[in-house]
Amino acid sequence: MQDSRHEEFDAYVAERGPALLRAARQLTGDRAEAEDLLQAALTKTYLAWDRIEDRATIDGYVRRAMANTQISWWRRRKLEVYPTDRLPDRPAADDHVRRSELHDALGRALRRLPERQRQAVMLRYYEDMPEAEVAEVLGVSVGTVKSTVSRAVARLRDDAVLSDDFPRSAPPVTGEY
Known about the structure:
Elements: H1 2-28, H2 31-48, H3 58-78, H4 94-112, H5 115-126, H6 131-138, H7 142-158, H8 160-165
Helix pairs in contact: 1-2, 1-3, 2-3, 5-6, 5-7, 6-7
């Protein structure tokens, strides 16, 4: 019993790990912290594995565990930060600011896409689903997924707000979203 539970959990982590890490990255904004957060959530999930009857809800369970854990960590850190009347001598590095601004602008650009294009892009790139899975989820052919994603990416490239705020000559923002 214990071995099959362990194998089933390992298979789940192997299949969904990259997508869950991206979700953790969204919550933390930092890869190392995201890895720690995901590890903590997966530990909680493993301990509750036998109580989760509907295996289709496991992603939701892990995401909820990540959100709750992140909130707990944030509250703990919040107690370590004390306000002061003095401003710091140097502004904070704008790498994180620029990445956050780009992330926000991209989110707004995605919301401007037609619903089908937005769904296809989110499933393909944010959930890291293969085109065949996206086609199955959306109830369309693989060719339709390819053309829909292609049109969506072209619209994002031509989005006036993205190109005005983040010209192509700017250094690329690296990392996962």
